[in-house]
Amino acid sequence: MKNFKISKVIGSFILLLVLGITTYAAGVRYISIATSSAGGAFSIIGTAMSDIINKNDPNVSANIEITGGSSENILLAKNKNVELAMTASDVLALALEGKGSFEGKKIDKDDLRGVMGGHMTTLQVYTLRDGKIKSFKDLKGKKIAVGPAGSVAGDAMKTIMDAYGYEINKDWKPEYLSHGDGAEALTDGNVDAVCIMSTLPASPVTTAAASKPIRLLGLEKEYFDKIMTECPYYIPAKIDADVYNGQDEKVEYTFGSASILITYKDMPEEDIYNMAKALFENNELLVAAYPQCNEWNIENATRGLEGLVEMHPGVIKYLKEKGVMN
């Protein structure tokens, strides 16, 4: 009988421990951040974001999700498979219009909310400096590496070639290669040009230019104006001379998009408020991980999101407290 009582006490004690652990685990909120392929800019930034969130809220466990990038991340957020998703403003615009890689899969803007805007990425189309291609008009009949299928660069390149009246797979041929493989294909003579949407300078372009001098192509103003009118989600951009080896002329007319962080409509206001506060007020930790994160600041809070989706109420609350939003 004595042994039975002891066993009962021990059993009760273990049960309390288990219940305590279960309660603690149940109290932790798990946050997934959809990023990109391993080593990509979004995965680096997302990892830094998760570290900041975890350090500032002991009741949250944030981790990144390795994904296919911007397009997939929008779907993950829309379907509530992740709490935060990194994407690009132009990809979000195409998703809301049901165009590009979202043809037949139009996203309802009411399903998503904005959290913060970030760094700019710039369209860069380059070829070998010693080649015959001097402008976009010379790309008719050429093979162009545009990144993986469904990439931001691929959609942008099609937009440009459509503006020039060049039909895909008829007047020009896209080659779906990673940006690193595209750079190598150019220097090996297997493609005629490469398109990339990235920060400046872009590592694959720097590598290609180190092997052989390159030429960056700029849009003629009439075509630039046409694209800006038809695609207002793109942001006008310029590229200074001498960013890359052989590139001694400034690109006056190109465009880019903003990297953005989104969530789904029903994310709790308090959670988003706390995460936004932590990220905005610890920007130096983001910059330490990825220098271009100096643009993920409160001044750019709505960059790339305005006119596309509403800001989340938790973010609005924080921005009003800081006097950034009325």
TrEMBL record:
Region forming the signal peptide: none
Domain of life according to the entry: Bacteria
SUPFAM superfamilies (UniProt xref): Periplasmic binding protein-like II (SSF53850)
Name of this protein: TAXI family TRAP transporter solute receptor
Pfam family, one: NMT1_3
Keywords per UniProt: Receptor
Native source species: Fusobacterium ulcerans 12-1B
